[in-house]
Design brief:
Helix content is about 50%, strand content about 20%. The protein is built from eleven helices and 17 strands. Helix 1 packs antiparallel against helix 11 and helix 8 packs antiparallel against helix 9. A hairpin with a 5-residue loop joins strand 8 and strand 9. A four-stranded antiparallel sheet has the order 5-6-4-16, with helices on one face. The chain has a four-stranded antiparallel sheet with strand order 10-7-13-14. It folds into three domains: about 230 residues, Multidrug efflux transporter AcrB transmembrane domain (Multidrug efflux transporter AcrB transmembrane fold), CATH 1.20.1640; about 80 residues, Alpha-Beta Plaits; about 130 residues, 2-Layer Sandwich (Gyrase A, domain 2), CATH 3.30.1360.
Length: about 475
Amino acid sequence: MKRVPKPVFFIVALLILAFSFTAIFGVSYYNGDNKNTVIRGVGDIRWGIDIRGGVEATFRPADNYDATDEQLDAAKAIIETRMMTQGITDYELYADKNKDRIIVRFPWKSDEKNFNAAEAIEDISSTALLTFRPGNSYESTDVDSKGDLVKKTPTGDTATVLMDGSMVKSAQAGYYEDKTTGEAKYVVNLTLTDEGKSKFAEITTEYLQKVVSIWMDDIMLSDPTVQSVISDGSAQISGSFTAAEANALAQKITAGALPFQLETTNYGTIDPTLGQNALTAMGYAAVIAFCIIAVLMIAFYRLPGLIAVIALIGQMGLSVAAVSGYFNTFPSFTMTLPGIAGLILSIGMGVDCNVITAERIKEELRNGRKLDGAIEKGTKNSLSAIIDGNMTVVIVSIILMLVFGPSNILSFLFGESTTGTIYSFGYTLLVGVIANFIMGIFCSRLMLKSVAGFKGLQKTWLFGGVKNGK
């Protein structure tokens, strides 16, 4: 076995413990009465409707405007976009096209104190502002729930508005057949108003062969290059779109050009089905369960069991960090009861991962191998079984996220109200399995091979062998 330097054990263990502590408890300080959060922890997680309750609101077009089905879908799309960019993944959103109504339910913010429903819906109900701007420079980036890059806040020349969404009559997804390859190419077709027709002709003349970006509020939707002067009021946005991407972009552009504002017909608060007390009880249960698992792992597997406990702490810390917004590149996530179930299941798989490795090492020691050979052979033989089991869960998690995520592929079968609940379960399960690969396989094996280099610990019984083994 190739030895790992002795200090590696202490370095990896300390890094795991320090990271897990900050991920779970967070780092913050007070400036007077104001709390400034440096690193988000469990206390900064946005809990789902089932745990903390939330807001319910019904919207309709203002001034009794008779909206078409397409316009209602576009308005629904922009509300969904705003919720997703705020990290709200536990929500219910659907359109009643017979009565021109949009109904939405979503949880309170993690730092909500006033619990004012009117203020909570203000951010998602205001009319979207669609603008066309020169260039495509931006100030910051974010990642949405699907892992796609979101470009935010125009800077420099891009801050200049060339025209707004009021000059766009409609936007529809379309396609054409590439004459060279025969493949279908998806595009977004824009139809402009009379005012927009002349304005867009001026813009395309001035910015020919240059980029003119399209923005929704302060989020960049697209940054096409002007290929020709367009003076007939019909424009086309092309690119490597899929059918779903072209349709989504068309809906967002239409939403920004809606000829009506949304007004709230009624709103109210939603009581949690579980409540804060249930969450506290679950927290205590998790701590007790972890302590029991730690004792059993150390009792049965000794030194590998202790290392497994450290790796398990790291897995929990990494899972919490992926939900709370610990990493700036990943948005915060709404944690629901099914989401917690996904984390618990993934932690159980993390224990299983370390049990398989420890049992393989014990088996090699019983077969008469020396310590180094037993660790090398045991970790190698257990790897395929661990990967097979975890990859199955990864595939299932991805399917759940694709089916019940923002794309909601099978909403016509299961209903849109299931989106946030099942998506949350798939997300946390996937995050937990990835954390298991990092901590349960890579870090734990690194520590195991490092600690085997200490002369005082080179006793087979410390690795599950017989008491008198050398």
